[in-house]
Every structure is written in C-alpha cells, then in structure tokens.
Amino acid sequence: MEFFHSVTLDKEKCKGCINCIKRCPTEAIRVRNKKAFIIPERCIDCGECIRVCPHHAKKATCDPLDVISQYEYAIALPAPALYGQFNNMDDIDILLRALIDFGFNEVYEVAKAAELVSAATRKMMREGNLKRPVISSACPAVTRLIRVRFPNLIEHVLPLNAPVELAARLSKEAAHKKTGIPMERIGAIFISPCAAKVTASKMPLGTEKSEVSAVVSINDIYPRLLSLMHLPDSEQDSLVQSGKIGVAWGTSSGEAAGLLNDSYLAADGIENVIRVLDDLEDERLNNLEFIELNACSGGCVGGVLTVENPYIAKAKLKRIVKYMPVSMNHIDHVPKEAVWDSNLEYAPVLTLDTDMHKALEKMSELEAIEADLPGLDCGSCGAPSCRALAEDVVRGAASPDDCIFKYKESIESLIRDIHRIEASIPPPFRTGEDEDASQ
Fold first, then answer.
1. Ramachandran assignment for 33, one of left (phi > 0), alpha (psi -120 to 50 degrees), beta (any other)
2. Domain limits at 371?
3. What angle do CA 7, 249, 218 make, to 5 degrees?
4. CA distance 190 to 83
C-alpha cells in the first residue's frame, strides 16, 4: 500500500541523534547507520518529530503559495488558528480582506463550517445514536492514532467530517452555482496550522476523496499577508461569517465548549492524548459525554506550521471573540456533506503477523528477547525502547547486538574466550640451540 505523508526527512541534515525516536507516539522512527528513517505505515503525521529535531531534519511538505494560479476560481479556507497569529488585530475582516488582496477570489471561513459541525454534533448527540463518550474526529493525527493503537475505541469516534472538509465541499458547491465554473476548476485551498491536515487532504479518513484542492502553510503565507492588512472600508460589507463557537475551535476545548454541554473532557499534546485514550480504553471515563483531543499543545494554534507561541495565540483569539456573536450558523438537519461516507477501519500496522498462531509465537520470542535486554530504554540502539528493539529483531530488521550493552557483553565474552584459548595452548618447544641463541 502506498502512503502519503506531509512529514518528511532530510537525510542530509539528520545527525542520527535519538530525539525523534523518543517522542514518536507510534514508534514510527528508527535510527540506523547514523540516519533516522520513518516507517511509513506507522506515521500519523502528528509533527512531534518536527518539534524536537534540533537539526531541522524533519519538515512538513505543503503546496506552494502559487498553487492558487492553477484554478480559475480560488477559495481561501483560513483555519481559525490563523486569526491568532497577528498582533493588535481586533477585527477578523482585516485578515479576510487581505486574503482577497493576496489573490483569492473568495474566502470561506473554516470557523463557519466548524459551527455547522458543532450544531450537527449537538443534534446527533441529542438523538442518542452515538456511543458515549463521543470522541472528536476533528484532529486527523488523533484519528489516525486511534485506528493504529486503539482500535477498540473506533466506534466512539464522531462520524463527521472535519470542518475544513465541510468548508471545502460547501464553498465549492456554492461557487459552482454562483459562477457556473466547473467544479474541477474551482480550488478550495486550506491555510493549515499543522502537517496532519495536509496528509488528511491527500489520504482522508471517513471519506473516499477530499474536496480540499490544496494546502498551504500558515508560516508561508503569514509574511505575505502582513503587508496587505489594513482597516477595511466602512462602506464595505463584512466578510466575517462566524462567531465565538467557530473561532474557538482554534484552541483546545473550543470544540467541546461549542456543544453547550459541561460533561466533556478536552486534552491537548500527544502524550496527554495517549493518556486519556488509555484511560478510556480501561473504561475509566464512561461518565463523560464528549472527549475533545488535539495532538498539538494548545490545540490547532500549537501546530508546527504556525508562527506564534500557542499560548499567546490563544490569548489573541480570546480577545478577538470577545464582542462576536455566539454563533452565526445553525442547522435544521445534519447536512449530508458533513457525514462520513466510509467507515474508519483498524490499521493493523503494529501486529507481528496476520496469522494468529504465528503472531503468538513471535510474541513469545519478542518477550524472551526483551527479557534478555537491559531494560534501560536508552535509545542507543536506534529504537525507542528495549521492547521496540526486540520487536525489530523478531521482524528481522535488527540484531540483539544492536544494543550497546549486549554488544559490550559479546565483546567481553569474546575476549574471555581468546584468553582461555591462549592459556590452553602449551608453550612452544625450544631446543638447546634456541636457548644458546637467546643467550
């Protein structure tokens, strides 16, 4: 199976340190021959390796800004996190008009679609046909994490498209009706705060095909927008079509608060997300109605493609929404564009073998190898833990001697064997002539 990943590795910059392997939530990175490599089927594009790499060897691949020229009609889909990147901006309309001046024909706020998703979620939860607690499907890195590491929780995942996907679908349909331009010549271009959303547009979950035409990064477009931002003409109609609920999706707990229900939990940061999922799998959180999880610290404002400190960006968003209406978008029914058209399925990339009998045999072998390792999880072998090294050995991708301590034991044992052999060899026979010669 082919995989697309926004997170990529620049081997020229990689120094073979082990910062990335210790942070990867799915153990998708190894270091071999002094270079890191990413196991594609395990990567969830959370961007943690990008954050911790001191040599900038990990990066996120996005579309270039001139991608808008490829479409006859280009629609900007700004993420709510974009609003928190600018200083002293109290009116979102300033930013939206800057996007028009940049070259987009139209702006459709992802925050608007977020309010529609919030309304759809409230309606579906009232109807009682969702398994509690419901887990948000908005963060693609978390959704991919669940299908890889927590398959028992798949039935809890909210079967609704993320706001950006809904925004792309609704905006392209509306533009087609308004202009008559064929759908394939209309580009819905997302301005993304994170790498996972880039991957979601190329290899979506919950839908066969994404309507997001391209994804550009916030950090690429940010400096270009600064020079275009100015106070809007008072006679112009405002382009803002979202309220507090939609804009708040840019930060942790924003989505959950939009459900107008206090029985929720919101966690951000991949380690905290894993901790919550572990507790949910152990049935410790069954009293909750909704769980919002964001792989990035602070929520989407903490994405690796942003420019502002996530906590400062969060404070900026709080100031921006202060005088906004609660919501500008409501629904009578759940729009068909918002609902998944394919099921979320378990991705068994962590299993040892598809044959259960062989898998059990390999598991026994793995545990035996792990028991013989020092258990320090130092990462010197290029694997994130002793158990990961044992798994690599079972899969035929490593040797126990990759462990520096096992290698040292092997060398010491070899030296002892050499000394023992030397001690068992009788001294060479020496004749009288040899003795005279030595004198």
1. left
2. 356-424
3. 40
4. 14
Within-domain flag for 25: yes
pLDDT of residue 375: 93
Whether 195 and 43 have beta carbons less than 8 Å apart is answered as no
DSSP 359-394: HHHHHHHHHHHHHHS------TTSSSSHHHHHHHHH
Read off the pLDDT of residues 53-101 as tens digits, 9 standing for 90 and up. Answer: 999 999 999 999 999 999 999 999 999 999 999 998 989 999 999 999 9
pLDDT digits (tens, 9 = 90+) for 266-310: 999 999 999 999 999 999 998 999 999 999 999 999 999 999 999
Residues 35 and 86 in one domain: no
Tell whether 167 is covered by a domain.
yes
**Given this model, what pLDDT does residue 402 score?**
93
Supply 188's token pair. Answer: 């819905």
The per-residue b/e assignment along 40-59, b for 16 or more CB within 10 angstroms, e otherwise, is eebbbbbbbbbbebeeebbb
pTM of the model: 0.90
Q: What is the DSSP string of 174-210?
A: HHHHHH---GGGEEEEEEESSHHHHHHHHS-SSSSS-
Is residue 189 in some structural domain? yes
Structural domain contains residue 2: no
Q: CA 16 to CA 36: how far, in whole Å?
A: 6
Whether 121 and 92 have beta carbons less than 8 Å apart is answered as no
Residues 81, 16 share a domain = no
362/356 Cα distance (integer angstroms)? 10
Domain containing residue 37: CATH number:
3.30.70.20
Number of compact structural domains in the chain: 3
What pLDDT score was predicted for residue 422?
A: 83
pLDDT at position 429: 61
